[in-house]
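Go through this one:
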Amino acid sequence: MDQQHKVMILLQLLLFQVLFVASQTDSRDYSGLNSLAESWSSKPQSWVGTDPCSSWDGIRCSNTRITELRLPSLSLRGQLSSAIESLSELVTLDLSYNTGLTGTIPNEIGNLKRLKSLSLVGCGFSGPIPDSIGSLKQLTFLALNSNKFSGTIPRSLGNLTNINWLDLAENELVGTIPVSDNQGRLGLDLLLKAQHFHMGSNNLTGTIPEKLFNSSMILEHVLFDHNQLEGSVPLSISSVGTLEVLRLDKNGLTGAVPANLSKLGKLSEIYLSHNKFNGTLPDFTGMNSLTYVDLSDNTFSASNVPSWVTSLPVLTTVILGQNHLGGTLNLSGHSQSLEQINLENNDITEIDPESNLPSIEIRLANNPICRESGASEKSYCQQPVSNPSFYSTPSNNCSPPPCSSDQIASPNCNCAFPYTGLLISRALSFSNFSDAKYYREIEQSLMDTFRNKSIPVDSVALSNPVRNPTSDNFELNLQVFPSQSDRFNATGILNIAFLLSNQIYKPPEFFSPYYFNGASYEYTAGEPKGSKSSHTGIIVGAVVAVVVFVVLASLAGMYAIRQKRRAERSAGLNPFANWEQNKNSGTAPQLKGGRWFAFDELRKYTNNFSEANTIGSGGYGQVYQGTLPSGELVAIKRAAKESMQGAVEFKTEIELLSRVHHKNLVSLLGFCFEKGEQMLVYEYIPNGTLMDSLSGKSGIWMDWIRRLKVTLGAARGLAYLHELANPPIIHRDIKSSNILLDDHLIAKVADFGLSKLLVDSERGHVTTQVKGTMGYLDPEYYMTQQLTEKSDVYSFGVLMLELATARRPIEQGKYIVREVMRVMDTSKDLYNLHSIIDPTILKTRPKGLEKFVMLGMRCVKEYAAERPTMAEVAKEIESIIELVGLNPNAESATTSETYEEAGKENAQHPYKEEDFSYSGIFPSTRVEPQ
């Protein structure tokens, strides 16, 4: 190699090192974010470059993994794509206040197993709430309110045993409120850590189940208002001693109000208006925390207004209009806190004492007392005139300056572009909302929160308080003004919106429970004033870095051009002429079958890689269905630009698949390696992965017979690789997502990107960097880095246990091998495996199950020497199939030939609640310990 070539290579290596050091975000997360952004017509302006963790707005990371995605109020438009599952370490996801986000929520959201907070408030999402959300068992905060979700409340939400905040209000949900039953179905009664059930303003029907409430709950707010619920108030609600706010108004509830509600000593507000309640007025004597009571528009009756109306110590407002209450309103000894009594449209005949009425707003219009002579002049007989409040936060001892047409003067008299939205209270514990003291408390609490969180806010302004006639909620316009600038940057907006969407801001008690509906903020494009000097160093550094990069890139480019010209001279002779000839790529593939496809060919076969031809996706990219000129269907696996495997691994998969031919191995038809693309062309496998079938996603019923035949097919495929391929091949990544099922449900082993050829000199073992998938990984290989065929045997043993239990290899921190070992007792019936075997096969008491599990446990022996070979495994599975009374060499059934059994429709898939599916025909999600 001459001196010039050495210099060029050194420059390339230096450039690679600079870029590698600069990038601090995991490639899976980077690829996932780019895929998300592709589904939006707009994205944050800072989303440029290759390192989201260092500079992208709305991104927070731990080490190299993205843990928080906060993008509220950024005018995002489009849909939430299934690529969200790529961000597997997410703890917080907040896309609130982006009304342009529409469509359905992808089921893949259930794969974010670490998610604790999911906030999609005030977007445009529709369709059903995915069942897969129920698999997010670490979730503590779930806010889906103010969208267009339809369908029923998923029973799977009963899995969210850590949930604190559950808000499904202001949607189009129908059906009943789900509770658990003796058939194992889940329900909301299992959410013992929940403090908030917010489900108002939907179309829920049926009764409020008696089982919904129990004494183990710590609920504070139960809001079921504005639905179509029927029946009576469940007696069980009185057992929730922590309850503070109860809204059941605007429903069709009937019967008497349970007397035992008086046990709710912490209840502050109760709304039962606009229902069909009857009987006597409930007795709230002793409920000394009540501040607001609304029982209007029912058919309650009473000969006299009960004494609790005026005597409860902190009660401010009582609304009993449109009932059948008669007799005398006794105001003697009334509470000093009482501000309003509304008894309009009742049968009140007298007030005692009539003289010296207290300073309480009394409303008795359309009562007999107001039909007496001269009564119309009494203030309490006059219909109150609704005077809208014109409160607006006043200026802070300054004169508002003239501002441009888009700017607004803040209370501190600075022209700026404020962040705006509606602050909405779902409770009305204060009646005289024209009193400025309430708004001053809210303003002060907002400013205290912003200061405590170090958010640069100059001031806040409230205006236009109004009670919404549709929702009966109390609404306030909120404006938040920036400090030391005329506008917020994106970070400021995201922080403010996040505090409000995730209930981090705690308002005064009289305004709680609340929610915020923010507007999009359009002014972040301008640079905040006064920041030029503070960014000078950053700008200079960036310019220097760019110059260095351009110089290095130019030199590297010159070298690349020279190499390209040299390669072009032989392009017509060798289809691999464009294969990179360097130590990172190795020599061109040596094929024994398969063909090279041009990029333009595959683009034509897939209708220009159209969305309609997409049959799978994942962190690696997309899988497309293609049709060759012969009419043959193929599956084309196209690697994403950001997640392409190394050229060596790509070449390995091509070489391996081109030289192996077995009915239990996926057939490679060809590949494409040009124009910066890596694509593999496989035979089309119509029925997806074994994982999909175990989870119920594919709809294929996996009874015991099918599981045995799938196991045998996969074992035979591996045995071929180990003993008949020349040279032998170790797969290194056996797992349920790499076993595919064809139209006859024949198992085919797929994904050879990590496989290793064993030449004669390596027969027995080879030292190699540990690669594979955690949960399936051979511990001896992991510890010694000595790879043998027995490493595949170990993974296959885990797969067998997975087939028997329908549990993930690692589930909630529990390893399937240890769990089977823990319960297994060969001296007992069915080896004491009843608690761990998949119930859908256990109920038929499958023959050979004990031998199957024992074989799986032999495969996962600690030491490789104690494990059987794959040929021996296949032989023993054949004997188990013969024990069942079937021919192990018979073809499997097609999907139309089912083994349906009674109760199949109600079968439960243990995987289902965890939704462990990976999209795509050829998944290649891997964990590679270093």
Remarks:
- The domain at 690-914 is CATH 1.10.510.10 (Transferase(Phosphotransferase); domain 1).
- Residues 532-568 form the longest helix (37 residues).
- The radius of gyration is 34 Å.
- Residues 13-23, 526-544, 566-586, 894-930 have pLDDT under 50 and may be disordered.
